[in-house]
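Q: Joint fold for the lines below.
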Amino acid sequence: MKVEVKAGQDVRKLVRGLVKEKGHEKAELIPILQDINSQLGYISDEAIQELSELMNIPLSHIYSVATFYRMLSTEPRGRHTIQFCESAPCHVAGGRVVWQKLQAELGLENGETSEDEKWTLITTSCLGVCGVGPVLVVDHDIYGNVTPDQVPGILSNYE
Amino acid sequence: MKATRSMVLVSSDQDSLDRGALDVFNALQQQIAAFGLDEEISLSMISEVSKKPQNPLVLVYPDAVIYGSVTPEDIPHIVEEHLYKGRVVEEKQISPYDLTGRIAWLSARKGTLPAENRIVLKNVGVIDPESIDEYIINEGYEALGTVLKEMTPAETIAVIKNSSLRGRGGAGFPTGLKWQFVAATKSEKKYVICNADESEPGTFKDRLVLEGDPHAIIEAMMIAAYAVGADEGFVYIRGEYGLAISRMAKAIEQARNYGLLGENIFGTDFSFDMHIHAGAGAYICGEETALIESIEGNRGEPRSRPPYPTTAGLWQKPTVVNNVETLANIPAIIRNGAEWYKSIGTPSSPGTKVYTILGNVNVTGLIEVPMGITLREVISIYAKGMKNGATFKVAQTGGSSGSIIPASLQDTPMDFDSFSKAGVSLGSGALLIGDENVCVVDLAKVLLNFFRFESCGKCNPCRIGNQRAYGTLVNISEGVGTLKDLDDLLMLSQQLYDLSNCGLGQTAGSPLFDILAHFRAEVEAHVKLKVCPTGVCPMSGRQVYQIF
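A: Joint structure:
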């Protein structure tokens, strides 16, 4: 899902294009940040600076918004992000052992990115697919009724 | 609890016991076995059914038939006729109107089976959600036509008020009253917002409505807009709901093409257009003022209230904010009238409620049933019993901000008034059912972890209180808790309730209160005996958090 930011690729140009498309209104800030996040994989400092100048919104405000929402990241992430639901319905349905297996398979703690930049592992609050808990989401793919045995197979689907 | 065809309950309050309830119970047990029905029929004692002249009582579910003044001699006949042949023994039946106590609500049911009754989910899974034509064929936009052509805004509000529809987002505020407030506020510009930021753990009813019947929401928002004098609307859908967002976008596009959105709708003076705002991942944005802040491009931090959104909402203009499920009721109420709506459910909470059933039961998923159904009925009828024949121990109702309740409250009717009397929150309608392997300390730990993560951080009681309560619970689960910790948890619970700015903080402490009110012995075992009775907690003896 992450687009490689090659050296010299113009982050500022991307931001300028988005602001031109959506407008300068403050109400467009979050939609623009969402687009930057999905295209770059995260929201870089450079992007925040450019946005601040174009939209005439203080850097502090943009940074506070970008760090507030769970789906926005100000840190680079791995090629694939694994979100594991840690809310009560998935927990009661057997989520704890799946989480332990995930951590062991990847050798990662919550919030960490692997050294080869393949995986980022994060816990998340309820994703609204509680009928099939425990639930984990890799990029945009949702896996339900997950058992610890299934974890290696799920991970092997990703390059 | 296994899946059973029928449930038989015997009253076991002191009066019934004095009058031989135990003999009746034994006779039932014997006769049910004699007919070979013990696999199909469950038998249990139930307290607090206090109609003294007719004790002991025998109740048969799901038929909701009540037999009064039952003696052991009556049992063979009742078992053979009713349970075996399916014929009600009328000479022993008593009127449900005579009941008092926790099951007095049976009268509202008029002795009938609480069948699924779909209003909100009427079209979901039945019509093609991407076809406006299918929606129109199924009575779609009919209510909008009626309202625009035949009713004044005041008449529209009157119908909703008379229907006694209450908000389905959790708080249960009367919808008609909310509309009236906005209508009464003078302003050039007003907004209608559909709150589809469904983030309450264990709830996904709104997602299914958005994915399955998006035009119903558009129609309802337009009716609301006409009633209050608004001309612009927003649907705030949580960002994780990709399919819901794309279906809603398509529905809006179709409605525009058909001239249902835009200027002079149906040739009247009424104009309305609407937009989607996708959330970016924050539980707190389900709180209406935080949601408004988020649409405006800010952090989702709740505002101080008053002023309420009804007078100063989006961009400080009067704003109606309604939940998806609430809105999905509107077209049906306009089409069928307030009296029809009031005939469903209980007198104080008319209509249906969509519940999500989750946890250690055989069937999980959504049901839409009249208000006033009980947890016992939900588990045995709709959820087809507990998984692996386990015992029902604990339920968490209404998502994280709801309540943790013990099995003894499973006969309380689930409507706004009965639940609030019992000190329980109906919340968003999530029903998380736990068996005897669920540890209440572990459950509370998961919930408080959720709140400390989702607290927006604006006010101190919530930001610090949740962190501290979580740390205390972790220590208890590691076997280093003290009795003072339990007092501290109760104090934190009260302070969160008293001092937090918004509903998140105010309800965050309720799991602490609930586990100590209903499961104190189990919590104390962690502290006094350093034992987790269910074997879930690590009990390592390691102090993880330093609490000052």
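Q: Anything notable?
A: Strands of chain A lie at 80-85, 119-124, 136-138, 141-143. The mean pLDDT of chain A is 91.
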